[in-house]
Structure formats: C-alpha cells, structure tokens
Amino acid sequence: MSAPPVEGKANKELVKLLAKALGVSSGQVELVSGHKARLKTVRVHGVDSEAVSNLMRTGKTPGDRQ
Prior knowledge:
- This protein has helices at residues 9-22, 49-58, and strands at residues 29-33, 41-44.
- The protein is globular, with a radius of gyration of 12 Å.
- The protein has 66 residues and is an alpha+beta fold.
- The protein has a two-stranded antiparallel sheet with strand order 1-2.
C-alpha cells in the first residue's frame, strides 16, 4: 500500500485492496477496529471465512490459478 496514514487514506486503500482480492465490493469490507493503528480487524460480508483465511495465509483466493 502506498497511501499515507493521513485522514483515513491508508484505511480506504486497505478496504479497496481486500475487496479486489476477494472479489467483492468495497462496501462489503468493513474496518471494525484499528482505524489509527497498524493492527486492523476487518469484517468481510458475503465471503466464506475459508477464503479470507486463505488470502491472509497465502496471498491467494480459491479462484486464483496456480
């Protein structure tokens, strides 16, 4: 991510990045906590928890080609 942590720009970029990686709209990705911290908690609506876990662990989603 390249956005500076100013006025929530980095958080917005994080939401867009996760949404794109998971194939959902930005509105389905919710920053739950950590708005001003490095450690964030996010909630992704409409996505299987296994897909989110796999993305965090490997950087790939089930639809990615090997």
